[in-house]
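Batch manifest, entry 17 of 40.
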Amino acid sequence: MGREIVIGLVGKPSSGKSTTLNSLTDANAKVGAFPFTTIDPNKATGYLEVACACSRFQKQSLCKPNYGYCRNGKRGVPIMLLDVAGLVPNAHLGKGLGNKFLGDLTEADCLIHIVDASGTTNAEGKATRGYDPLQDIEWLQDEIYQWILGNLMERWGSVVRRHTSTKSTTLETLRQQLGGYSANKQLIGRALDLVPHVGPLQEWDNDTVGEVVKAFMKVKFPTVLSLNKMDHPDADKNVSKIILQHTESKCVLTSSITEVFLRKLAAQKYIKYDSGTEFVDTKDDLPDDPELKPLDEKIRKRIDNIRDLVLYRFGSTGVVQLLQAAADVLDLVPVYPVRNVHSFTGGSGTEVFRDCVLVKRGTAVASVAKKIMGDVTIAMIEGVNGTRVGEEDTVDIGKNDILSFKIVPGG
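Output type: structure tokens
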């Protein structure tokens, strides 16, 4: 398997980062073994919900993934989450766990920044009132910027001298300098495309270097803003201000503590809850359901408040939509490797679409094969109903996203 997609969760203390992480990695969702070979202490498995291919062919009852889950055509695809700790002001100067925090970031392909939209915690996460959460967003971006810029400028003179003497291209020189941030040539090339008029590298001034670093950040660390505690009375004005100020960012309104509470009630059989929606049913709603327990007045009142203040008002707790927003930012699509392209089964049995991998939209089928199969020689690639698929064909939802790879014997 190739390198996994990693989504980093960042946020100051008391912003709700740990609660959000818990809601994204809920134990009730875990069906099947872990797909990842190693899970470090600060890594966890989240579940990106997508429309499963089984629903296209009315095979929902036969769909049993090896990893994650599929419920009535809604599939939870495992995805790696990175809990980035040590977020404090001046992290780029090594304050707090700054070096570890910034070093951990290099693994991330996308960031979810948990922002306390209520304004009831200050920059250190201590209780207050009227704090402007815009400061947290700008501060985090500036920390990453200063860290990358500082590392680059520290040796910029020798970088330019080597660049000139070896007659390297700008792309090759930047690959050598920025490759340590888990950035390949294609990613750095996309960053350079955002600043097309920079001129020869040896003529760059400090402003130009800064402009290139900002472009690199856009492609290396695309960020989804989780505007958490959305149901707090003070959140409305802050949410509006953040969305107006960060028009290019994906913003998702969330209440992670509500999501965790609802999932707990569902596990205890007090409610039936369709996560990612506004639908919560209790014994009052389904009196004939034998699985549901009757509510006491305290729980009933809390559920009514949640319905009024969160679910009916916002449509959901927003937590499920967080990973979907991250997948949109990364332009990910699910691809289903199968043995049989007519029945969609694996090696044996009747269960369909056992495996699913996430790849970037537009990826060549040959690259998908390498990610799934490793370095083997592919004899033939087939799509639905045995259609021949070329190695240079690309994948998208509903297009070359169900594939069977035939390997050359001994290859």
